[in-house]
Design a protein that fits this description.
Blueprint: H1 14-24, H2 32-35, E1 39-42, E2 46-49, H3 50-58, H4 67-74, H5 80-94, H6 112-127, H7 149-153, E3 155-159, E4 167-174, E5 177-184, E6 194-205, E7 211-222, E8 238-242, E9 247-252, E10 258-263
Antiparallel strand pairs: 1-2, 3-4, 3-10, 4-5, 5-6, 6-7, 7-8, 8-9, 9-10
Length: 274
């Protein structure tokens, strides 16, 4: 979670005053719909509807692109509600399609959807020649390059699984070798762990700031000794989307994104026995 001490100095002006005021008190619901519906349990404000937060965002005095710098500051605020209000205001100003996000994920600082909005904001600022200090986005991995691939991602990563998840993905980057392992979250001899080992040939950075890995070859193996044939070139593309020093989202081929956290080689969360 972000802390106030890690953020740049507080901006000033009517927009900043409005947003900082929301830390202490949110506006009361103006309509019945703002008081009912899907809610978020905020540590500071209690149960708050997303309708109320969206309404607060739509009423902010955002009139020019430089206001986005103030919104960017508050989009990284420790307060959940303030962060959501700022993010929604950013999305409206830059024309980000809100249908691309899920309501709870858009203000989760470790979620790729939150990160994607900030990435779109940086692209907007750059494209509209709005000057900003990189410190505004410090630690958010929004200025990664292909050269950061190995120093940033080398080592072991494991999927952050829930209590009911049956499988877990483990990823290891060792020099030019990428190892992707799928294993059961509880021991089961019928489902031995299976690993795809890939020789990394090329890494590119796409417009969403995802590191895309193309392999020279891929070979599968399993914990019981089975070894598959070497496929040249590798027939699966892997994508890694770093959102912090210790959290990266991972996708195998066209599959769904999985949240990985930095860890040790054998670190795995065991599901409770039934």
């Amino acid at each position: 979670m972000l802390s106030a001490s890690s953020a740049p100095a507080e901006p000033n002006g009517p927009l900043a005053d409005k947003l900082s005021g929301f830390r202490q008190k949110l506006p009361p619901p103006a309509t019945r719909s703002e008081g009912n519906g899907v809610s978020h349990s905020c540590p500071r404000h209690g149960s708050v509807t997303y309708g109320l937060l969206y309404s607060a965002a739509s009423k902010l005095p955002v009139t020019q692109d430089t206001d986005l710098l103030t919104l960017a500051h508050f989009a990284r605020d420790p307060d959940d509600c303030v962060r959501y209000i700022a993010i929604k205001a950013i999305m409206k100003r830059i024309g980000y399609d809100s249908n691309r996000t899920a309501v709870p994920s858009v203000h989760d600082v470790e979620h790729y959807e939150y990160h994607d909005v900030l990435g779109a904001l940086v692209s907007y600022l750059d494209g509209h020649r709005v000057a900003y200090r990189r410190e505004l986005f410090a630690g958010s991995m929004l200025h990664v390059t292909e050269r950061d691939f190995e120093p940033l991602l080398r080592g072991h990563w494991h999927e952050d699984v829930g209590e009911r998840q049956n499988f877990q993905t483990l990823v290891e980057l060792d020099g030019k070798l990428l190892r992707v392992t799928s294993r059961k979250t509880r021991d089961d001899p019928k489902w031995p762990a299976r690993t795809n080992t890939v020789q990394v040939e090329k890494v590119t950075l796409n417009p969403q700031r995802q590191l895309v890995i193309v392999g020279a070859w891929r070979q599968s193996s399993s914990a019981n000794g089975d070894l598959g044939r070497k496929i040249e070139p590798a027939d699966i593309t892997y994508s890694l989307w770093p959102v912090s020093q210790n959290v990266v989202w991972f996708r195998e081929g066209s599959g769904y994104w999985k949240k990985l956290v930095r860890g040790r080689a054998a670190e795995v969360r065991r599901a409770p026995e039934p």
